[in-house]
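Notebook entry, structure prediction.
Reason for the run: the old model in the group folder had no record of what sequence produced it. Starting over properly, with the input documented here first.
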Amino acid sequence: MKTASPMSAEEAVLLFAHGSRDPEWARPVEALRTRIAGLTCARVDLAYLEYCAPTLAAALAQMAGESIRRVHIVPVFIGQGAHLRRDLPALVDTARQAHPELRIELLPAIGEQPEILEAIAHAIASRIPGEPSGTAPQQHK
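New structure, fully documented this time:
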């Protein structure tokens, strides 16, 4: 069942993932796209940094040629490594120059969202037998 969404038909979500030479690697990302598409009225597509198609440039070019006017890019990464600090902003800048008609919004890495970290922590903890220790993990500095 789709829920109401403030996004219009001219908006899209573009999930941006690393990519892999192994075709099985993309299955969870494709499943995520399907789940998001079931929750929003916006178009939901995938793009990859390398090894998989389409690239970010190809996906945005296709959207620019259609009725899409605003794209929300969601990096499907756990954290901000070099690809997200350096490579992705450069790709987005190039796309903005190539497609000034597109309003491109780059969101933070999904893995840095507190609710995602909480969900991952619960998923892992639920698979470990025993009672919670009640102590917080040590932060590495």
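Summary: The chain is about 35% helix and 15% strand.
The old model has been moved to the deprecated folder.
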